[in-house]
TrEMBL record:
The chain crosses the membrane at residues 9-27, 47-69, 90-111, 143-167, 179-202, 214-238, 417-435, 455-473. Residues 283-364 are annotated as: Disordered. Sodium-phosphate symporter. It is found in: Membrane. Its main location: membrane. Keywords: Membrane, Phosphate transport, Transmembrane, Transmembrane helix, Transport. Residues 348-364 have a biased composition (Basic and acidic residues). Pfam families: PHO4. Belongs to the inorganic phosphate transporter (PiT) (TC 2.A.20) family. It comes from Periplaneta americana (American cockroach). Residues 283-311, 325-347 have a biased composition (Polar residues). It comes from the Eukaryota. PANTHER family: PHOSPHATE TRANSPORTER. The lineage of its organism: Eukaryota, Metazoa, Ecdysozoa, Arthropoda, Hexapoda. This is Phosphate transporter.
Length: 510
């Protein structure tokens, strides 16, 4: 037995606060990549912009919806009754779980592995309880639900993302003019996303904020009202702005290699020659001012080999090619940019064979539209992540604090909001100082991300995480995001569209 605020265990609480901050730091460095990795990978946001948005929404999610999962972590997994009279032993066990999880996360982040913070803290909690009380110390029903959710959540997340992607591809991407249905859908996407977020906060929300007193129909009306206002704002302010932006971008037409229309100056005229051996050489000529539609391709017979010659006009006369008759090979898929290019004629064929396997690029106007949407979904994902994963660092710390202040293992008090805020700050600091390592792995290396696929990936993962947070299940946000990435990557291309070698390495430390 210990008394409330006993100095005997004060050192455990102090060091526990330090270790919890370091663990939150590791989660921020590793797991926040799940929220903004795809946004950075698709070039929608810079890392600095992602960090700014994540700081706000990770902390907001932690404070507004993180209390249920933290309750599960601190007294749902364990049978706390068996520790009656052994409060110090339980505190030491929670302290050990913090240390073990911290070491794993920091090590994984150093090696750029997106591991699950949820798995590490749950495993550490199970481990110390098995040592202290055997199987009597665990709540097997709750534990079974948590472990089951780890297998269900990536599939659910992937299915939500795929269904949304198929709908978008059918009605927007494959439309004759994708911009029209895309702009019509913009207010709907915003309204639904904001509705889900607001309802998750207001319905059965934190007791300390008195949200638990709002009936379900009141939460529904509040959420619908805020979502309707957001849709009107998007329709009358954002949609006209997006139209202007897209039309402005579409008016700036350019050809490869810097050739611009409208009488602009070209950097240099370029001639590319492919000889009998498949070797390519490049000759740069002086800069000339060109006019639209004055670039011609002529067939030239050189040493018995037919080649294409690119003629760049010089006033009313064509600039003659060099004496060795440089030319543009007909099989060359794009302008070369280096005189030392050793590409053979067989390589374009290989690239063409792989072209159907890779995810297709979004049309420019659709890419810009979904880039704007992806900022919204990334913040949604960040909010959901803060609400779920902050418990991984703060759950054991809350147990330490409440046992210390109450002198009881029952921990009857509500989860303090200031400790949730403390965890959110730790997550944000970790993201700013070390998070870009895993952002690259999630956002760029696993599969190619475009704005439209990134949008569907983030929506599917965020909805799944948010649902789990409201139930109180500490699921793996890494599983959800990787599941959505793989499902959408495969659906948008073929199974070769996903780096399966890298994917097999990701679950090693799950």
């Amino acid at each position: 037995m210990i008394e409330a605020f006993s100095t005997e265990v004060l050192w455990i609480v102090i060091v526990g606060f330090i270790m919890a901050f370091v663990l939150a730091f590791g989660i921020g460095a590793n797991d926040v990549a799940n929220s903004f990795g795809t946004s950075v990978g698709s070039k929608v946001l810079t890392i600095r912009q992602a960090c700014c948005l994540a700081t706000v929404f990770e902390i907001a999610g932690a404070m507004l919806i993180g209390y249920k999962v933290s309750d599960t972590m601190r007294k749902g997994i364990l049978q706390v009754d068996v520790y009656e009279g052994a409060e110090k032993e339980l505190m030491l066990g929670m302290f050990a779980a913090l240390i073990g999880s911290t070491l794993l996360l920091l090590g994984a982040t150093f090696f750029k592995l997106p591991v699950s913070a949820t798995h590490s803290i749950v495993g550490a909690t199970i481990g110390f309880s098995l040592v202290c009380r055997g199987d009597r110390g665990l709540n097997w029903e709750t534990l079974g639900m948590i472990i089951g959710s780890w297998f269900v959540s990536p599939v659910l997340s992937g299915l939500i993302s795929v269904i949304l992607f198929v709908i978008i591809r059918r009605f927007i991407l494959n439309a004759s003019n994708p911009l029209v249905p895309g702009l019509l859908a913009l207010p709907v996407f915003y309204g639904v996303t904001i509705f889900v977020n607001v309802f998750s906060i207001v319905h059965d929300g934190p007791t300390l904020l008195y949200f638990d007193r709002i009936p379900w129909w009141g939460a529904l009306l509040i959420s619908l009202g805020i979502a309707a206002v957001a849709m009107l704002i998007v329709q009358f302010l954002v949609v006209p702005y997006m139209k202007r932006q897209i039309n402005h971008a579409g008016s700036e037409q350019k050809t490869p290699d810097g050739i611009s229309f409208g009488g602009l100056k070209k950097k240099d005229a370029v001639y590319i020659e492919t000889n009998e051996l498949g070797k390519q050489s490049v000759t740069w000529t002086n800069s000339e001012k060109i006019q639209p539609n004055n670039v011609t391709n002529d067939l030239v017979q050189t040493n018995g080999t037919t080649n294409n010659q690119l003629a760049i006009p010089n006033g009313d006369k064509e600039t003659p090619p060099p004496s060795n008759t440089p030319n543009l090979g007909q099989d060359n898929p794009a302008f070369s940019t280096s005189p030392d290019d050793n590409t053979t004629q067989s390589q374009p064929e290989e690239k063409d064979a792989k072209k159907d396997e890779a995810p297709k690029e979004d049309p420019p106007e659709v890419g810009k539209l979904f880039s704007f949407l992806q900022i919204l979904t990334a913040t949604f994902a960040s909010f959901a992540h803060g609400g779920n994963d902050v418990s991984n660092a703060i759950g054991p710390l809350i147990a330490l604090w409440l046992i210390y202040t109450e002198g009881s293992v029952q921990q009857k008090s509500e989860t303090p909001l200031y400790i949730l805020f403390y965890g959110g700050v730790g997550i944000s600091v970790g993201l700013w100082l070390w998070g870009r390592r895993v952002i690259q792995t999630i956002g760029e290396d696993l599969t190619k991300i475009t704005p439209s696929t990134g949008f569907t990936i983030e929506i599917g993962a965020a909805l799944t995480v948010l649902l789990a947070s409201k139930i109180g299940l500490p699921i793996s946000t890494t599983h959800c995001k990787v599941g959505s990435i793989v499902f959408v990557g495969w659906t948008s291309s073929t199974k070769q569209g996903v780096d399966w070698k890298l994917f097999r390495q990701v679950p090693i430390l799950f």
